[in-house]
Amino acid sequence: MGRPFGTRRDRSPLLEIVVPAYNEADRLPEGLGVLCDKLAGLQVRAEVIVVDNASTDGTGEIVRFWRGPVPVRLVRCERRGKGAAVRAGLLETRAPYVGFMDADMATDLAALDEAIVLLREGRPVVVGSRRHGRSVVQGYALPLRRLGAIAFNRAVRDLVGGIADTQCGFKFFDGPLARAAAADLRTDGFSFDVELLAHCVRRGASVTAIPVVWRDRPGSTFSVRRHSLQCLLDLTRIRLRAGFRLPAVPAAPALPVVPVRAMFADSKADPVVLDNGLPSTPTAQSG
């Protein structure tokens, strides 16, 4: 069993979410609003860490003056690259459970419910997968980008626990595990997810993929033509640093989505066994 989700006496967060942001002044206010509203609806103390990745458009000012239903704090990362920003953010966390997601909130936050349930049950790494059989993907139709993603993920499955989508910007972890893996992270660019997951797998952690609703958002800084060569170089370095090939490990089976509106307060209720045999805490009845 994982750690119980309850209210700590010292009021420190139980869940911290990192949002890397490079020149996100236009999209960040909406994204932060959606995320904070979602977190406020969960009975678990949460905080958001926005990592300003050397922005030049006022991203940091938006965070500095942000007022919302959950705490949001700013971390400045002068080293450019999404990997560098996520690393800086994860190393700033202190919570038992942590994660990161993209500023555009391309992944529907309904997936956060299931991610928290799995973390609570003791799953050390939970990742959103656009290639999950129950995922809904909208707008991801560019043939070159789709083919590139398939080839990329097939090339790294042995490093990341067998999951089919390493690049979805929606990942959650046991806190100490994430901080240890982030401390070893050396990839600054878009391939950082592979190295981060590989560090978790090498520490004996299983990776659980869950379905997501994902909508392509305009404004992504990733370009197949501009970044493919760098990604290839990064993957080569990751393999060299790993020093060996790990055997492919099947991803843990995905659980059905479970609503968790009021399940995180301390409870003595008997556990409910889901169809796949894993225990879960009873959910609040909708009404």
From TrEMBL:
Keywords: Transferase. GO terms for molecular function: transferase activity. The keyword Transferase applies. InterPro entries: Glyco_trans_2-like (IPR001173), Nucleotide-diphossugar_trans (IPR029044). Gene3D superfamilies: Spore Coat Polysaccharide Biosynthesis Protein SpsA, Chain A (3.90.550.10). It holds the Pfam family Glycos_transf_2. GO terms for biological process: protein N-linked glycosylation. It comes from the Bacteria. Residues 17-158 form the Glycosyltransferase 2-like domain. This is Glycosyltransferase family 2 protein. It comes from Actinomadura livida.
